[in-house]
Design goal:
By secondary structure, the protein is mainly α. The protein contains eleven helices and three strands; from the N terminus they run H-E-H-H-E-E-H-H-H-H-H-H-H-H. The longest helix has 25 residues.
Length: about 240
């Protein structure tokens, strides 16, 4: 079974910028509850995810073993999505480790701004692959409307914004939408209406759209940080 999933991962990666990279050693774990699984290894680390709804996680154990953890579900598409999403996180952070010559992944995972970009990147790559797999049965305009609905619903429910959570939500949704646009650019709008709270979020969208690979972002971290810091500053 594990070999089947690893084969699916390799097929997925062949469509990304990581097609020719050597995949780092990692352990694939399926569990009924990710929080309880992490709790057994590192109670302090588990506090970070307490209360979160998590279906997949890139986790580095106390002994620095890289693990890709997936919560069991009967929904195979959801499993594939989470599997591919977390695999991109593994490769993003290993690319960052090599770029910075710092192989302490746990330390690198404290970089809030890179985490946000990687959330976008993981969602963009996984969503684009799944869209292409089902391209003939997708009505792109309906998907655009659904993504816009999710965006509006989130911000209608969160009148008082916590910037970190809002940014995390937006970069993921922007990853989905930009993937949809890249596959169906003749059928959906590049700039859908009511998809940006303000000009800061539009700047985030534009930045992410121009930085869809690690090679694009690796020498341009400062701009990403400036955008998010401006977002925090304007909220005060």
């Amino acid at each position: 079974m594990e070999q089947d999933f690893l084969s699916l991962i390799r097929t997925f990666l062949s469509t990304t910028e990581y097609a020719d990279i050597e995949i780092p050693i990692f352990k694939l774990v399926f569990t009924e509850n990710i929080y309880n699984y992490v709790l057994q290894d590192d109670p302090e680390y588990a506090k970070r995810i307490m209360g979160d709804t998590i279906y997949g996680m890139y986790y580095v154990t106390k002994n620095y073993e890289q693990q890709l953890i997936i919560e069991n579900t009967d929904n195979i598409v959801e499993i594939m999505h989470n599997l591919f999403h977390e695999m991109i996180h593994i490769l993003d952070f290993n690319a960052l480790a090599k770029h910075k010559n710092n192989y302490n992944i746990r330390e690198l995972q404290d970089d809030t701004f890179f985490i946000l970009w990687s959330e976008f990147h993981a969602e963009y790559c996984s969503y684009k692959y799944l869209i292409n797999c089902a391209k003939e049965s997708i009505f792109p305009q309906n998907v655009q409307i659904e993504i816009q609905r999710k965006f509006a619903s989130y911000f209608n429910q969160h009148i008082r914004l916590e910037i970190q959570y809002a940014a995390d939500f937006c970069v993921r949704l922007y990853g989905q939408y930009i993937a949809l646009y890249d596959v169906f650019e003749d059928d959906v709008d590049m700039y859908p209406s009511q998809f940006y709270i303000n000009s800061d979020f539009l700047d985030i969208y534009n930045y992410l759209n121009k930085h869809k690979t690690f090679e694009k972002i690796k020498d341009n971290f400062e701009e990403l940080e400036r955008i998010f810091r401006r977002l925090e500053s304007n909220k005060k």
